[in-house]
């Protein structure tokens, strides 16, 4: 047992030692062996490959990051050790980002975001006031508002309000009003943008053993779930906020993010006081809150799924342009109403191309993104709301059906082998007699 454990430990250490310690940014192979990224381990996702677009996307606004990049030493790397990635894709992204900055499309839009946020806050107050009289309906209303808080904190987490106010904006909507952790969200969501729809690296694809969106994931899902996943997916989303509530709080405590823990405590205190002041009983208050939690999960999960789950999985070495066009979908992209309804997740292609661009500006770059996709022969999926919903739900149904058929065929083949083996053994026995 000890020897086996030692061998496994040594194998893991050897694997870690074999990992590249460089990344390529603007043509330079930069040695990052001793560099510790201030934002966490996201740099690990780009070791041994080109990270130019990721750097421009996450740090193009930050002069300090550019200065830090210049101080990093270069490392000689054999051409054979650099994976094949389309440099013309990197150049196109650099050109587009520069063009959008020149047009002022990355400048914060605090007035529009503030009006949006104030409307959500007033709606939360109205739902609390109605909780004593119609706790379920009020819970659905506050769940919708909490989902909108999720969209608003999404804007702050992507620094749409600039470096000074963005995280404060995020903490207000994610921490105080929604009871979550802004840091946990950024850690998970930045990896989603860095490696969109990459199995094993995009945490948003970890839906097994309950749901599967492609043949690889389907192998990890039991038969009963594959049979029902197209019908149970939406109701099951009502449970995911409850599940993540534990994960988020554990993260904040383990990381000693006491300011976030304080905001979570303040969230519960605020809503307890508000419900009491509105005259809600304990049972109506709990009904209101739990309904809101469940509906929030369904609302957020549904709109996120429309834009991601049913399209291709991409390789880890895909360029930013490839992973964006192959791993995301637009629906109702020209509609401002659809934008606010879904927190602008309906223009997901543009958001993934420029995640730090204010959401209200994303419609202005649709033509540029479409032209880039056409230029390089990549898909640009523009769907209606109905078509996007059909793609998502039929994808679940088809994936489950195909995997179940494969398993049934495999079992038939195994039984046939067993029968043939038994017949062969019987023949051999008769011959011996």
Automatic annotation (TrEMBL):
<protein>
    <submittedName>
        <fullName>Delta-4 desaturase</fullName>
    </submittedName>
</protein>
<feature type="domain" description="Cytochrome b5 heme-binding">
    <location>
        <begin position="12"/>
        <end position="71"/>
    </location>
</feature>
<dbReference type="GO" id="GO:0016717">
    <property type="term" value="F:oxidoreductase activity, acting on paired donors, with oxidation of a pair of donors resulting in the reduction of molecular oxygen to two molecules of water"/>
</dbReference>
<feature type="transmembrane region" description="Helical">
    <location>
        <begin position="261"/>
        <end position="281"/>
    </location>
</feature>
<dbReference type="Pfam" id="PF00173">
    <property type="entry name" value="Cyt-b5"/>
</dbReference>
<dbReference type="GO" id="GO:0016020">
    <property type="term" value="C:membrane"/>
</dbReference>
<feature type="domain" description="Fatty acid desaturase">
    <location>
        <begin position="134"/>
        <end position="383"/>
    </location>
</feature>
<dbReference type="InterPro" id="IPR001199">
    <property type="entry name" value="Cyt_B5-like_heme/steroid-bd"/>
</dbReference>
<feature type="transmembrane region" description="Helical">
    <location>
        <begin position="111"/>
        <end position="134"/>
    </location>
</feature>
<keyword id="KW-0443">Lipid metabolism</keyword>
<feature type="transmembrane region" description="Helical">
    <location>
        <begin position="230"/>
        <end position="249"/>
    </location>
</feature>
<dbReference type="Pfam" id="PF00487">
    <property type="entry name" value="FA_desaturase"/>
</dbReference>
<feature type="transmembrane region" description="Helical">
    <location>
        <begin position="293"/>
        <end position="311"/>
    </location>
</feature>
<keyword id="KW-0560">Oxidoreductase</keyword>
<dbReference type="InterPro" id="IPR036400">
    <property type="entry name" value="Cyt_B5-like_heme/steroid_sf"/>
</dbReference>
<keyword id="KW-0812">Transmembrane</keyword>
<dbReference type="GO" id="GO:0006629">
    <property type="term" value="P:lipid metabolic process"/>
</dbReference>
<dbReference type="InterPro" id="IPR005804">
    <property type="entry name" value="FA_desaturase_dom"/>
</dbReference>
<keyword id="KW-1133">Transmembrane helix</keyword>
<comment type="similarity">
    <text>Belongs to the fatty acid desaturase type 1 family.</text>
</comment>
<keyword id="KW-0472">Membrane</keyword>
<dbReference type="InterPro" id="IPR012171">
    <property type="entry name" value="Fatty_acid_desaturase"/>
</dbReference>
């Amino acid at each position: 047992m000890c020897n086996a454990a030692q061998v496994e430990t040594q194998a893991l250490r050897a694997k870690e030692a074999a990992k590249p310690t460089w990344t390529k940014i603007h043509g330079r192979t930069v040695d990052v062996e001793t560099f510790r990224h201030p934002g966490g381990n996201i740099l690990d996702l780009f070791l041994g490959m080109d990270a130019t677009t990721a750097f421009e996307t996450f740090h193009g606004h930050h002069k300090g990051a550019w200065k830090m990049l210049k101080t990093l030493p270069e490392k000689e790397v054999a051409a054979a050790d650099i994976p094949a990635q389309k440099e013309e894709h990197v150049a196109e992204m650099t050109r587009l980002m520069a063009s959008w900055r020149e047009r002022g499309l990355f400048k914060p839009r605090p007035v529009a975001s503030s009006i949006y946020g104030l409307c959500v806050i007033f709606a939360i107050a109205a739902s609390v006031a109605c909780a004593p009289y119609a706790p379920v309906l009020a819970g659905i209303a506050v769940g919708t508002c909490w989902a909108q808080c999720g969209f608003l904190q999404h804007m702050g987490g992507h620094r749409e309000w600039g470096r000074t106010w963005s995280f404060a904006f995020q903490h207000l909507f994610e921490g105080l009003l929604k009871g979550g952790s802004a840091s946990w969200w950024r850690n998970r969501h930045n990896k989603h943008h860095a490696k969109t729809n990459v199995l094993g690296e995009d945490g948003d694809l970890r839906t097994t053993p309950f749901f599967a969106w492609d043949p690889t994931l389907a192998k990890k899902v039991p038969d009963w779930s594959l049979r029902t996943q197209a019908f149970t997916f939406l109701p099951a989303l009502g449970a995911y906020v409850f599940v993540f509530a534990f994960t988020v709080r554990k993260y904040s405590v383990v990381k000693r993010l006491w300011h976030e823990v304080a905001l979570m405590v303040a969230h519960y205190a605020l809503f307890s006081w508000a419900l009491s002041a509105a005259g809600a009983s304990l049972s109506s208050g709990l009904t209101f809150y739990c309904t809101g939690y469940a509906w929030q999960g369904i609302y957020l999960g549904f709109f996120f799924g429309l834009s991601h789950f049913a399209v291709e999985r991409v390789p880890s070495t895909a360029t930013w342009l490839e992973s964006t066009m192959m791993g995301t979908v637009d629906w109702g992209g020209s509609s401002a109403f659809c934008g606010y309804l879904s927190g602008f997740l309906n223009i997901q292609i543009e958001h993934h191309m420029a995640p730090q661009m204010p959401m209200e500006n994303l419609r202005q770059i649709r033509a540029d993104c479409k032209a880039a996709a056409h230029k390089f022969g990549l898909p640009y999926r523009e769907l209606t709301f109905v078509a996007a919903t059909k793609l998502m739900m039929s994808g679940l149904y088809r994936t489950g059906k195909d995997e179940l058929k494969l398993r049934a065929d495999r079992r038939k083949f195994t039984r046939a082998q067993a029968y043939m083996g038994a017949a062969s053994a019987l023949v051999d026995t008769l011959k011996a007699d």
